[in-house]
Design goal:
BROX, mainly alpha, two-stranded antiparallel sheet, about 50% helix, about 450 residues, 11 helices
Amino acid sequence: MAHWFHRNPLKATTSLAFDFGPQASTALARNICIDAKDARTALLSILPDPNKDVVSMKDSLDKYIGFLLGFVNPTDPPPGHKPTAQPQAKVQEQEGEGPSSSETEKQPEPQLSTLDSKLRNALKISWSNSLTGKVVTQHDFVFELISILYNVGLWYSKHAAKVAASSENISEEDAKEVHRCLRVAAGIFSYIQENLVVRLFEKPEDAIDLDPQVLLAYVLQSTAEAQEVTVARAIELKHKPSLISALAFETYNLFRKASDALRSVDETVVNKWRKYLLLKSAIYLSYAHCYSGQVLLDSDQCGQAIRALRESVTLHQKAGILCSEYAAAKGVGVAAKPEHHPFYRRLGTTVKRILDKCERENGFIYHQKVPDELPELETKPTFGLVSPIEFELASKCSEWTWEVYNGFSLSEARPDKKKKEKEDSVKPVKEVPIEQTDKEPNNTSGCIIS
């Protein structure tokens, strides 16, 4: 498994006091606003630090989501609830000043949307774009939900990178945590893409990170990185070269598709990110041909093995160029020199060792011609394929009762455009850096999980 040196920054936000003013007309309504504010503050304090544990993150997220959903979705009245009659207007004595007979009849209570809370559009919410830093503002608690989950997805990917980089050789339990965190991250980004962005009344201007292709890239990248753990384990446990080659090819495909997803996005924004994805795709295609060469050698097809391994060398050299391009590229992400990382250096050593062996054996034993045509890869692994873990949103907390909800005196939520307001400014999140080691691990693959 390679070092994960590219991580986009967290989205930044302004404080959110949940201040409804006189519209929170009861003590219960005001109290739930205070609880929501405290839960949000607690979650935001965890997000910048990938050293925090997963249990603390999940508990804090579920607590805030429990409060937040009351501002997103309506709270239904209890069974048997009867709407309160609206007071009739006082009839004026002077002719022509009184209301019509229809206006003096009891008016029905406004009907709430089955999907939206009447509170959904009540407050202004501001978050920065994770790719550009530009502030995006919406009057929509669904936007708040998306932004919070976006940061949580990024946190899981950063936590995985932190655990993986914490030691030259980490435990199997840590490896399982890394693997699971990346699958969780993929599931969160998939949930945002499929279930939440479509609920926005309008796509916010400048919200490049809500582009479906950007979200798809996150899903594919997180899945690919989880599969890197599988490839590393297969190498360390000396599974069949055919399985390693097929897994490496699938990992290459995931990184390649992630890069392709970003083709439609402004290159000046995602250039550095795409270099990372292209670099990883070249590395894993090199792995695929390397272990394919081992399979061919084992089956006495030495000429074809040499052709496969020469292709692996070419791809490793291409990855080396991309390493330098990544380090020099401008854009969001941490400073890194991937050409110095063991995952890159050790692959070159492995490919050279197997190629030298093939060429020696061909010279002494097989005397086979090296074909121009590249041997086909095994592309359907029978084991080890990774998929995102389906994300499940926490339930609305029990504090959201009808009495609490009814304590907010707002009309039914409607997707009306708000008047243009002064833009908020937000400070970038000060994140705890992920320290990585470039020491050589004591294993075969150069991976940092064994």
